Queue: 4 jobs
Job 1
Amino acid sequence: MADEIAAVERALVQGEWTPVHEECALGGALFECRDRLVENPSPADMPHSERGLWLTQTLVVHALLVRELTDEVLPRWQDRLAGSPMVHLVQAYADAVQPVLPYAARLLAAWQAWPPPAPAADLVAGEAERLCVSAAEAEQDTWFWDVRHWEAAQISAAERSAIELALHRCGDIATVIYAAVTGQTDY
């Protein structure tokens, strides 16, 4: 599959494939779905992090995205764009997400069953004093590390590597889709 993606990317960069409007619309639909899911990540009851989505939320967003792509988006376009490189790219993205789906389900179930407790008020006060920050900042920092440790306890190092590899692959494919949609091929 990597060779096929590289061939599509090469054709795009060398001007051998110029996506038509409908192909750009399909690629854009992937980003629209992803952005909508990122705006309201699940599980919604995870504490807000200024540093971005938690791993749990990232994986759940990808799981929901792949379901939407395969159940709704691709079926609308596959016949109209049969043989299109964009259909191939969006399908490859959905396929690249597959390895993270079991981890998404497992982390979501674990969060729903036994999330880490909220930081104790005395701990937050002590951290605020130690770090010379507000109580709100200390609480957010404490939550950050508590959730990070909680997530790390849910998956092994080997599983984390597999997740990172799959997400990296998704990112590589998304880069090609983005270049095709925007025409910005000088990356």
Note: The two ends are 21 Å apart (CA to CA).
Job 2
Amino acid sequence: MAMGLWSTVVIGLLPPVGWLLWRWNDVWYGLVMATLRSSKGDTKLPPGKMGLPILGDTISFLWYFKFLRRPDDYINSKRHKYGDGIGMYKTHLFGKTSLAGVHGKAHLRLRSFVSRSINQPDALRQIALAMQPRMISALQSWTKCRKITFYDEMKKVSFENIGMYFASIEPGATLERLKKYLAGVVSGFRAYPLNIPGFTFYHALQCRRKTQEFFREELDKRRKNNGENDQPIQDLMDGLMNIKDEDGNHLSDTEVLDNITGILLAGFESTVVVTTWALYYLAKYPNVLQKLREENLSLKSNKSELLVTSDEILKLEYTMKVVDETIRLANIAGFVVRVATKDFEYQGYTIPKGWNVIVWLRNVHTDPKNFDHPLCFDPDRWNGSMLPENFQAFGAGPRICVGNMLARLQIAMFLHHLSTGYKWQLVNPDAKVKYLPHSKLEDGLEITIEKL
């Protein structure tokens, strides 16, 4: 009798307990947090469901992005259910994250310096000439192997160029060690923030710590060698060490380390992944490749030098359309995260201070409202004027990626040398795609390559 009563009680409790678990985050944030924050008592949070305790909507996110490999279905299901009216919905993803950044005058000062160092015309001219020899040498060596995994090989070339220009690190064991650390950090970009041994996020934090230690040793070595004398800026790291504010103060060691690490991470995989996708799409769309090749052969025929200048490359209209279309479809940054620094109102809803604001950039680039046949590779879509809000690959506003012109230039330079001297074929034309931590071909783009 007693057992039967307890069974009835347990069975009766299952529905309300299940409901409470599923709506726990909504109850907590929607009632408790809103009540605590609102002095008027009329706080209204955006529509949406926040899922399970701690996990939130992470299981659904991983199911679509990692297992089904249909990220657009995930985004569109949320948008159609909650976001089409007001353009936003509330959810709970990636746990409670902490973001570190530089704000105000310090941020503007750093952006100005980094932009001058890597994104202005004089800097681009210097970088273009410095980076091409490794690209040309790599292409020549790949034909001897004939079959390569492009992503792996291109990463070596790109990282050697980045390591040399940004921190004067020669190719070798030291650079390989740094590359291993940065790869570990990148793996944690979309990982659930469980700082427990054995989890990806924990490993990423350990790799970030090792990266910082790596550059701290380099920082100490440079200070020891330079003594008290100001030295001419030789690379980006020296520039960060020597930059001063209006009061003559240098950046702190932490600021130097954070920024050199952040800049290297920004360029570590992004251009490599986009270049990989460019080869994939050009192999799939031979008509696009033919137009690209003709434009670049025209430039090459009018030159006696093997190297091209940044000015020449950036004037190749169709080539730059190919680059921008690849960047749009590659969607390296599927979303960006910002943090609300104070409570604010939007369309009658309150976004509380401290909440993460996630912007689905992938949806911007694959929305039929913004692009006709958005999943089709069509560089000619760039013939007309493009609304800035429809192309957000590099972000927008004061936080826009300062290396956007450098990234586009690097990809275009490589495509110039590739298209004018080589042909390639996909080993796995129907290779699957991984979407975490970003969109990447599962086979790393295996190709056969030979000279024209």
Note: The longest strand covers residues 446-451.
Job 3
Amino acid sequence: MDQGLAAFIAGVAGTVGALGGAFIGGVAAVRGARIGAEKAAEAARQQVQDQASIDHDHWLRQQRLEAYTMLLGAYDAYVPVANRVSRKVRELSLGEEVPTEDLEEMSTTAAAIQKERQRVKLVGPDAIHDKAVELEESVWTHQHALMQLAEALHNAYPLAGDLAEEEREARRDNARTHDSFVRAVGALLEDRGT
């Protein structure tokens, strides 16, 4: 072989190798850039999702705090009314008229507890709602016991004393269920670091 031909073949082989290497390098660079862009887009999407989740958790925590506070506020409005009505009923003489306006006021404040308990149901969680249900039920039980006692005294029912004890126990149960609700809310907030 002639040296010129060998040099030509070596030059062509070098050029083909250089072009092939450049082509493969270009393809690899494009593929790498595409993979890098996909990874960056995925990281941005994940960051947006994480921030949305954090924002939702914060919003839900605020809604829960407000619902729990409103329920406790409704209960706090009920207690002095219930205590006042309870005192008035216990002071009734046999055959004396039932203080209907006071009992109606107590029903109104109890209904506010029911309304706020329904709001707690919306924001949850179920364990807190269960405690709110217990609180509401104890309020209604107390109101019912107080109304029965007032009716028994009005009608001079001989076992009104037993009903008076039921009413006192129902009032104590109100305090226990209130305390249970407050402790459950406190534990939830402590677990969440709020």
Note: The mean pLDDT is 85.
Job 4
Amino acid sequence: MGFIAIRFGASGAFVANPDCMVANLLSYMKRMCNEHDPKVFLDLADEDGMLINLNDYHPKKRASSILSTKTMYIPIKLERYADGSLKPYVPLVPDMNQENPDFMRRLAVQYERRTGKTIRGYGRLQSLPEDAKLGKNVNTPPTKRNTSQGNKGTKGTNRAGKSR
């Protein structure tokens, strides 16, 4: 069993045990980050700026199956405008734009993909490698599609042998 570290504020951090339900971890994070507004949601991003999207998982899913132990995460504030559209992501670590501009650019790219809205003030988003924009690990080779041995030489046919 391991723990995760959640960086909060200018120089603080707290630890959390991810061996719990996602709903419990999110509730604990809200309490530790002094966020009491029920309209505000929290999420986590890794130190590279990749959003974990904890709110997209089933609340009873084990957080340990999503998060890596012995890792530092940054809490991200998620709010909505009155019309229901998502506001830009806000890290709960002050001066993140000056401290780690790439972190903010990656968050901005993810926000733009989710909402279709552009965020100004985070520098040129095109300066990020394409793999980072997609949340892919640059060092991981692309996977090949698994094909069965029986389909060799049957290009353009399906399993039943019929043409596509």
Note: The chain has one domain: 4-139.
